[in-house]
Amino acid sequence: MESGSPSQQQQSNGGGSWGAFLKSIASFNGDLASLTAPPFILSSTSLTEFSSYWAEHPSTFANPAQEPDAAKRALSVLKWFLTTLKQQYASRSEQYGNEKKPLNPFLGELFLGKWEDEAGTTELISEQVSHHPPATAYCITNIPSGVRLEGYNAQKASFSKTINIKQIGHAVLTVPSPSSTELDTYLITLPSLHIEGLIFGSPFIELDGASYITSSTGFTAKIDYSGKGWLSGKKNSFTATLYPSGKEKDVLFNVSGQWTKTFEIHSGVAKHNSKDNVVGYWDPSQVSTTKLIVSPVEKQHPLESRRAWAKVAAAIAKGDLDAVGQEKSKIENAQREMRAKEKAEGRNWERRYFNARSDAPDPVLSKLGPIVGLAEHGDAEKTGGVWRFDLTKTEKAHEQLSLTDDDARKIAKELLGQ
Ligand SMILES: CC(C)CCC[C@@H](C)[C@H]1CC[C@H]2[C@@H]3[C@@H](O)C=C4C[C@@H](O)CC[C@]4(C)[C@H]3CC[C@]12C
């Protein structure tokens, strides 16, 4: 991975490259994949890997299943969601000094792994389920507690002063209630974001607007995001309130702080500088993340992300842009040929783990969607469908992951041109 300050990197990669990049952004057509970024901004991580950010603290993810009180369970879900934001939106800039442009996944790309820690085993399945428009679906299950997150995500970008990104899609968290045989459902919307620091050559993410979590148990959380220059004057700020659905003024809990730093949870309506109603606290520097376990590249299926992109990643690490272009083209051309072949044979690429729901309207969206402004059809035309995890496919798909070397070579040639 590249290191050093952006100005050092620009010098070593050709001083004009960042300026040219900024000019290309000004005539940006909304297609993030089409942006030709200078080498120091290129990441060798594919967007399919980003699904893992949802559960890098497995115990916090599984915690709601321990909470017998429905309002406190909803608070525990809100707390887990807030703890994921730093991983999702700031981990690259914290690690490398700036946000990076991830690899654009190909249809059928997989990212599989698991976390093993005091919360037991938590499994991750992430699959690129659509290429035009690009959409990634994921399913994360904490085995001992049965807590499961299913979701999918696409991005719509626009340019006005900077790159603005609206996330399309949503997530559904299922939590077995400890006091009954019921499964609670939480519908989670995704925040909008924009890129700051472009002009200085060190882009980072700021969240804006509001996002929501609403539950089948009758509680809703609204999270309002703000950055530097807004109310708190601090970057990555938020305030969140939890209330009975439909009664926004009856605040049961409120949370405020910075999603990259610390936040405090209070009961009732916020009281600044009051310690009496503090019921919780989060300081990411005090809680370590659990490392995701991913199979060694040579044991992965050819469509697994790190194996499929290994040559591109090696070229990025060397800063060899010609090789990056050549290796990416091999994958893109093989994918184009595969789509043409499917079209000629009148079939579609079969998703390994997910299905686009055909029995619209989707029951979760029908029941909870209106509370948080999500349409019954979930903006399906912008994500290639309303994607749901298909348990019946999973066993078969896991079996097929171990292939003979010959079969693996055949798949790599046919689908990735390698
Ligand atoms: C660095 C910049 C100049 C190039 C543009 C890169 C752009 C395509 C990247 C930058 C940040 C990326 C977000 C990322 O912050 C986090 C997430 C959350 C995850 O759950 C789903 C993907 C998403 C929205 C990334 C999409 C691609 C973004 C916008």
UniProtKB/TrEMBL annotation:
GO terms for biological process: intermembrane lipid transfer. InterPro entries: OSBP_sf, Oxysterol-bd, Oxysterol-bd_CS. GO terms for cellular component: cytosol; membrane. PROSITE patterns: OSBP. GO terms for molecular function: oxysterol binding. Pfam families: Oxysterol_BP. Gene3D superfamilies: 1.10.287.2720, 2.40.160.120, 3.30.70.3490, 6.10.250.1430. PANTHER family: OXYSTEROL-BINDING PROTEIN HOMOLOG 4-RELATED, OXYSTEROL-BINDING PROTEIN-RELATED. Belongs to the OSBP family. This is Oxysterol-binding protein.
